[in-house]
Amino acid sequence: MDAGGAGIEAVQVKRAFGAVTAVADVTFTAEPGRVTGLVGPNGSGKTTLLLMLASLLRPDDGQVRIAGVDPVADPAGARRLLGWMPDSLGAWPSLTAREVLIATAQLYDLSRVDARERADRLLDLVDLTALAGSAARVLSRGQKQRLALARALVHEPRVLLLDEPASGLDPQARIALRVLLRRLADEGCTILISSHVLSELEEVVDDAVFLLDGRTVGRDRVAAATTRVRPWRVRVAADASHGAGSDRESVAAALGRASGDVGVDRRDLLVPFADESAAVAGLRALVGAGIPIVEFAPAVGDLEHAFLDLRGDAAAEGSPE
Ligand SMILES: Nc1ncnc2c1ncn2[C@@H]1O[C@H](COP(=O)(O)OP(=O)(O)OP(=O)(O)O)[C@@H](O)[C@H]1O
Asked: Is 265 helix (H, G, I), strand (E, B) or coil?
């Protein structure tokens, strides 16, 4: 392992709780300047892994490096380098939002003056200035999430670990989070982010690490899943003279498929294509047949598609444990 690495490195990391193996075998790298998504179903070990990376839980086996520092051997050194945003704010509910940030900054050895200045800047960054004097416990879930993010950024970490940061955020706050994460990555930060909302993750991540039953899924398997047949959403211009049923017949006919191959989802038709070039040929055939297409796009994003496909593989093989 490269002890001088700037990002996150995990090699054959394991962690059990009694008889429950939460993390069975995790190996991955997250690069500086990139946002890496941690994707996996409920109970696949994401939070356990993040806790180990954050130096808050000891691995049973394997190695972790945070910007080259081993969080087991040097937890204080790792904590100086990493910002950790748990999935709930916790700690100090009676302090105000501003006091939470000042206290955290002072824990990282900032002077009181610098801590106040940093707190005000971060409150502005996460749009909480108006609530600076409110007790943390009275903040809404989304406001607590924003405060937790500000707290994670207090010491300008080089590595950012975020557990479900978008949960509870309204659409505007989610967009602001995406913009902020992109900016931090552009400044050289290494960002690892877990989320269940794959469509949102899709818009911000550069790379993805897939966890199934506590194990990282190999790149080859992910690449194969990403390129496998997927449904495309086809919308035909609304025409009062006939319903979706007859659109389905005409689309199937234009594509030379049986109408049973074409699914119906409310106003849209779902047509499986093997890859992008098959989709391009399909669209050409539909337009050539005079069908008024108003929308034509993959029905699920790359991450979601790979996730569903990998889960399908795992179910077919049976659980590896
Ligand atoms: N402290 C603990 N004691 C016992 N079992 C635990 C503990 N923490 C986690 N587990 C178990 O380890 C497994 C992985 O849990 P973990 O919370 O890491 O998954 P996750 O991927 O974050 O799940 P979710 O997406 O639901 O948040 C689960 O089966 C869970 O029940």
From this structure: strand
| Spacing, Cα 201 to ligand 1 middle (Å) | 21
Ligand 1 pocket mutation pick from 26, 48, 197 by most atoms within 8 angstroms of CB: 48
Give residue-wise pLDDT tens across range 173-228.
888 888 899 999 999 999 999 987 787 788 888 888 999 999 998 777 777 766 67
Ligand 1 centroid to Cα of residue 214, in Å, is 10
> ipTM beyond 0.95?
yes
40 lines ligand 1 (CB under 6 A): yes
Is residue 97 within 8 A of residue 173, CB to CB? The reply is no
Rounded to an integer, what distance in angstroms lies between the CA atom of residue 173 and that of residue 271?
A: 34
CB 45 within 8 A of CB 26: yes
- In the chain the domains, ranked by start, together with CATH numbers, are 8-216 (3.40.50.300), 228-316 (3.30.70)
